[in-house]
Amino acid sequence: MSWLRCALLTLPLLVQAAGSPPTFSADEKARIAALGPWPPPAALDAGNRWAGQPAAVQLGQQLFFDPRLSPDGRLACVSCHLPPLAFADGRSRSHGRVPLQRHAPSLWNAVHERWLGWDGAADSLWAQALRPLTDADELASNAAHLRRLFSSDAELACRWQRSFAAPPPADDDRLLVLAAKALGAFVGSLVSGRTPFDRFRDALTGGDARTLASAQQAYPAEAQRGLQLFVGRGRCHFCHAGPRFSNGEFADIGIGFFVPGGGVDSGRHGGIQALRRSPYTLLSAHADDPGEAATKTRHVQAAHRNFGEFKVPSLRNVALTAPYLHDGRAATLDDVIRHYSELDLERLHSDGERILEPLRLDAREHGDLRAFLQTLSDPAATRWQAPALPRCEAPGNPQ
Fold first, then answer.
1. Alpha-carbon separation of residue 174 from 65, 129, 294 (angstroms)
2. Fewer CB under 10 Å: which end of the chain, C or N?
């Protein structure tokens, strides 16, 4: 047989092997098992006694979509967190009253986050809500404005009364915190559904051969190879860990932290300083019995290495929330993958344990990793519709 004929006969077998799904080792299966299950056990906004209460969730929902929350009626929370964009805004840097420094993250599953914000300057959903609510560059609201709003709108006043069993308080701090806790209760209700990855993961780790065979047929071979790369040579699972695909902490990944117009974004270093200055944390009198959740806040300390670190984001719904990184500089998933493939080690911190190494992916590996990341999205995450709110009746009257 000539070499040419042999090559032609062998080629289809090579193509089939290149497109075939991998065989996972016991160690790889254990790492994949640790990326679930989903959904996780229910969580509530720490330090927020109204978290999970239907009346507070409904009030928070109404406030979230109401541009009257801002004194000039220009902006609402939904201005930067749009449901059709998976509660992000699709901009590299969000726009409030002025262009902002950072990319608006998705709010899906935020209740499961350890710290809030790219720099972790808030330790709860309600504390995080206070910042855009009162920031001069965003909603620029204040207690006096909110008091006028609730006194002039019977529906909002009714929802407030049903939520808190009292009218808006005279104390400005108390009023702002309660409004933020209603917003936290609503955002805490946003938990996305299962994904193609979750179904494959459950079948792979469940031990039923027939179920696994069906799942392997349904889950693309390239996504399976990307998953093997994710938990193997790529070591992505070290930081993008657990069911949320995030360890909840912060990292330097070798990107610049200069901001337009000069200056720098210090990231986690500044976030810890802001957290420790804030009067609205789980250690404050504003927190409702936070319990062990306050331990993280009590012990966090800024270190030099935190400068330029940003939150390790969840990868759930990642294909739906472009652009990427804290300042949106990566327009596509391909850009993010390329960054890790071609990582410049000179841009990383010199102190601490080094985890990242350039992956040097070939074209197929790049495509496999992208295919895997695309399976981490809940198909319904961009089709969310705000539940219709029932007409509010004064407490004591039937709804």
1. 22, 14, 20
2. N
